[in-house]
Amino acid sequence: MSFILRRLVFYAVAAWVALTINFFIPRLIPGNAVQNVMAKFPNLQPSAYKALEALLGVGHPGSIWHQYVTYLDDIFHFNFGTDVSQYPAQVSSLLVQTLPWTITLVGVATVIAFLIGTALGIVAGWRHGGTLDRVLPGLMFL
């Protein structure tokens, strides 16, 4: 039971670190999402800037820590917001569309890796001490 608990704590900390990095990196790059959308749609009026700020969550009032807590709350409630590159699509709808393809890709890659790895393991076991024994550790990295 303690092994499972340690694993769960490890995965929770890893998820928190990934979410934290995902929060801070966009805030470190120059510009913001509203400027990107305004550049894609040059016919938008300057008054649309404030509306896009509210829609995309840019320019939140409060400190960076308040924004961070709000971000974590939104992630916890599966509110991923609006996609900037495919505006005005919701990120959740894009995830639903691409999830079957991702699962298929992972499944096919797993089957191929299993078949190739098993075949190489059989050959390496059959010819113990051969060239394949020296090459396989490097291939395992790949």
Task: Tell me what the structure shows.
The protein is an all-alpha fold and 142 residues long. The chain has two domains: 1-84, no CATH class; 90-142. It has six helices and no strands. α2 crosses α3 (48-56). The protein is elongated. The chain starts with a helix and ends with a helix. The model has no long low-confidence stretch (mean pLDDT 85).
List the helices and strands and how they pair.
Elements: H1 2-28, H2 33-40, H3 48-56, H4 64-76, H5 91-126, H6 131-141
Helix pairs in contact: 2-3
Keywords:
6 helices; 2 domains; 142 residues; mainly alpha
Structural class: mainly alpha
β content, as a range?
A: under 5%
The total count of strands amounts to 0
Largest sheet: none
Oligomer: single chain
What is the CA–CA distance across the termini? 33 Å
Mean pLDDT rating: 85
Q: What is the domain tally?
A: 2
Concise account of the structure shown:
By secondary structure, the protein is mainly alpha-helical. It has helices spanning 2-28, 33-40, 48-56, 64-76, 91-126, 131-141.
